[in-house]
């Protein structure tokens, strides 16, 4: 098939978080049969993938070859599957753009809040978000699979049950903190931390959460995210700090509207990828309101079962708080 610039841009947005490192990009370039010496890679993954895909699009079958290789490594990535089936995901579109010649009543015009709620936040908003990001880690399993997680009090790591389903898998996994880059694009020195399920482990398959102790002093070094009952409703905005595709730590806070809240589930439009499972979902005040766990064509638990929506979904943090409290009261450890 032929790929226009719009399709290539969509593919770039899919592939850049999956393969942010130059070494990974060069491997795919070679495996797809492209000459890496003809492609100018950049410190920015987005720029590099723009170069790679533009180069590949001028050579028959090479974009398809890249998608095929990526699908072999990420077979459950719905966005890649749709791209491979010539059904690239459609972007969410805003209102139509029109030619504006200026207001007729310019003298009486005043600035306005556009929308139902103000999007203005203090400059400290960014600093607080970065502080919260310290407590977010990548989970790497013995199988090589990855997820995301975050620290809460008592040196306890929170993630999904489908990431760490039992003490055995937790004992063979590690949490990787500071897997990110500086402003200059230089890798921060990451730290691997052992999980200690013999000290404490609890999980719920129904609500898809797991909690496990980590090595002492983790809270002293990376802080913690407080767990409090959530106040979140449809129309709110939520941000997610995550390790999409097992790559560098990233934040998602564009197109981040909450679409549904009910039956201990929160559905939203905030972007994630495989590997983001176990990420904290924050409200605009950086309170944790949900534990991200799934995405795709989802049904609303209390809605019409015939209707599905392309959304992401988290477990309302209240479910995690309640289950964790019960486990601690029971003195559960390693079970």
From TrEMBL:
Q: According to its UniProt record, which residues of this chain constitute the active site? A: 162 (charge relay system), 208 (charge relay system), 277 (charge relay system)
- Sorted UniProt keywords: Hydrolase, Protease, Serine protease, Signal
Which molecular function term from Gene Ontology is one that the record holds?
Answer: serine-type peptidase activity
* GO biological process, alphabetically ordered: proteolysis
Q: Which residues form the Effector-associated domain?
A: 2-83
Its EC number(s): 3.4.21.-
Under the heading PANTHER family, the entry gives: LYSYL ENDOPEPTIDASE
Q: Which family does it belong to?
A: Belongs to the peptidase S1B family.
Protein name stated in the entry: Serine protease
